[in-house]
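re: that chain from earlier
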Amino acid sequence: MARQNNDDLFQSSTMTFGEHLEELRSCLMRASAGLFFGVLIGFFVARPVVHLIEQPLRRALGNYYIERSLEAFDEWKPRVANGPALPYTRFEVEDAVERYGMSFDLREIHTDRILKPIPHSDAGLQEGVPTPFDPATLAPVLLWQPLSRDSRVSITTLSAQEAFGIYVKAALLVGVVLAGPWIIYQLWTFVAAGLYPHEKHWVHLFLPISTGLFLAGVGLAFFFVFDFVLQYLLAFNEWLGLDPDPRISEWLGFVLILPIGFGLGFQLPLVMLFLERVGIFDVETYATGWRVAVIVIFVVSAILTPADPYSLLFLALPLCVLYFGGLGICRWFPRDASENSRSLSTRKAT
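^ sequence. v structure.
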């Protein structure tokens, strides 16, 4: 049966302050219920989600240690002229890494000691005289193993109960992503409940676009930004001469914050258009205040992202583009004069 107009969620008139509080309570309850069911679903899929979340970190660690191994390979020189050479060419090493997913570690050994080990009773002695260690005869050797089994790219936990906390966080992440559109819907519902009838039709238009922007922000953070952020952080470790030993719980906390910040930030053009449509701001205010808006965008981006320039720029620059995009939409699709006068007259009457 077709829905009647008087059943429309957004057809009610403006409300008193007490009615606003009651509507806010109802929206929060519905949003919380949606989050609860999203988290409940997350408990059934948390295990593959944890493995999925690990992939950017494992990939970054693998690239980090492969690059360090290749640098050691390129920098290795024989200790003496005509000494032992590297057993592989650079092409062979790159082929093993890229085609077969291998990792390696460059070490040096005395090959004669492996082929002809000295008996223990005579070790270090030659005709009763101690034999000094001879580094000049050390030969390079590459120790190979699949990158997936390299202990350097493993992600650790420091306690037995930490794994359960990781599982719960993964379920929470799934719940937030799944319930995100529903929570945004409840937010717009609360906003629409206090609007005048001629303003409410914009909410119907904004809901699907808002959901799409939220998912676009989450996708940008997870599939694009994480790799650049990790490369920067690992490069900073290398610059300080430190070997990273990441914990999955810390990484998961990072994964929880960054995509949600991107998803919320991508709502900017809709918020601008909505505020312009209801008469709170106009196009000229947006146009003349763009410098202040850019500063605010960078400050908010610094709050929503970790302490690295890449994630800040990857959030702030799209938001600046979205700000000017929202300005362009407001300018290219202005409010009708009748709508503008109706909004002003209605508000003056109240």
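The longest helix spans residues 17-75.
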